[in-house]
Amino acid sequence: MEPISGQEAQALPDFVLQQFAPGNGEYNHQQLYRILQGGIRQSALPAGHKLPPTRAMAEALGIARNTVVQVYEQLVLEGLAQAGVGRGTYVAEAAPGFVGRVRAALRGGGPVASPLSQRGADLVQGALASPMQWGAFTPGVPEVRMFPAKVWSRLQSQAWREVTPAHLSYATGAGHPALREAIADYLGGTRGVACDAAQVVVTSGTQQALHLVAHLLADSGDRVWLEDPGYWGARAMFRAAGLALEPVDLDAEGLAPSAQQLEKPPRLMFLSPAHQYPTGVLMSHGRRRQLLDYAARHRVWIVEDDYDSEFRFAARPLPALQGLDEQGRVLYLGTFSKTLYPSLRLAYLVLPRDLVESFTRALNELYREGQTLQQVVLARFLREGHYARHIRRMRGVYAARRAALIEAVTARFGTRLPLLGSDAGLHLVLGLPDAADDAAVADEALAAGVMTRPLSMYSLRRPAPHKGLVLGYGAVTEPEIRAAFDRLAAVLARHV
Ligand SMILES: Cc1ncc(COP(=O)(O)O)c(C=O)c1O
Fold first, then answer.
1. Residue closest by Cα to atom 14 of ligand 1
2. pLDDT given for residue 99 in this prediction
3. How far apart are CA 9 and CA 31, in angstroms?
4. CA angle 15, 21, 24 (to 5 degrees)
5. Which of 190, 256, 305, 353 maximizes the CB count within 10 A of its CB?
6. Is residue 386 within 8 Å of 148, Cβ to Cβ?
7. Residue ID of nearest Cα to ligand 1 atom 6
8. Could you list the residue ranges forming a coiled coil in this record (predicted)?
9. Would the pLDDT of 422 be above 80?
10. What percent of the chain has pLDDT above 70?
């Protein structure tokens, strides 16, 4: 990339235009941010360089001006750019961190190199985490305002009164024994998971569990089958571990590998059979059997992500795939992020017996197991029935919110836009025509104060085969749902 001098400021839209690709599944603001940030980091946009006015940039790219404003503000916030009233926005003279180090290297005459590894740069550039994690219609967030904080703080005080040095020192196991016991009982009773406490490994979120799975069961270059569209968190973790990602289609019965794909068994497959994320497909019993047989025959590991099956509103859920597995091929993942609150960062793996020792050692080698006192509290919360009570209560709350969202959509669009997602979970997918640019819709909605995720972002394929918006209703009250959908509908009306 050639540096752009001060006089060539007007050429910037060209420089951005070369890289900017609307509809590539990334939000417009994220894409523009990534391109500009990359330009600054690689000194293609030198210190003092004036960025074009937001209106000119927006027109050149065919995106909303607000999107550009938002990106400039983010660059300023991070110290990469500076803004003065009436002066416009400039690349910062002394941006912190990375840029500072690049400049220092330049001054010393050394090579200008990114401090990031190739893997690090890929990870950061591909990052898709949402700019907002609260409010209508952020997917995957539960109603944390109804969390029984009083009960929790009582249990927490009790745990502190009874604290021992072991609770506060480095932990060396696979989780607090009382929590592992409580999880095993809960799963046996509600999800048909066949396990005892010795098979449960407590992790700091599903992401940490996936990190262990990727590093312990696969080598760099090994292939992993991913549902497509599918969970971007798993995709990011497997990609960062150097695995080769292979998107696999879905049909009405769940994961549907082609005949060609079946001929080349992968090392791992990642599934969400109870409530496919994000489309909501419930994997049929027949498909479960077929995949288990296939996995046993070809020694494929199945990673079963059972992230929100507590919230099923009509039919009873099918028991977990893990409960049908007689060959020890399934690793079952569960989380407290949806049932309690995401920042708790407690999740678990249920492992085939012969993997437990290795996973426990690796967990301690890489991270050191922790949060022991929180685990003590959580174990009591489960044992004393508060957990089951909270889930029962929230099931009613989410069912009503889901109904409100469906009503808002159908009142405005009838059946013209399909709604996907079985009778479960904390989100729905609003289908858009295949030709729609769902990333642009999501961007405009965000500028109007409504957070959605484009369905194309969940796909590894380019162009993404299906378009839509993932709408989370878990953390949004019914009046908020109606008001936010009105704003979203105004954006949608310009596109469909
Ligand atoms: C498909 C899926 N699995 C798992 C999780 C939970 O991840 P964690 O336990 O790291 O919060 C999420 C959260 O968004 C999810 O969408």
1. 140
2. 28
3. 20
4. 150
5. 305
6. yes
7. 206
8. none
9. no
10. 90
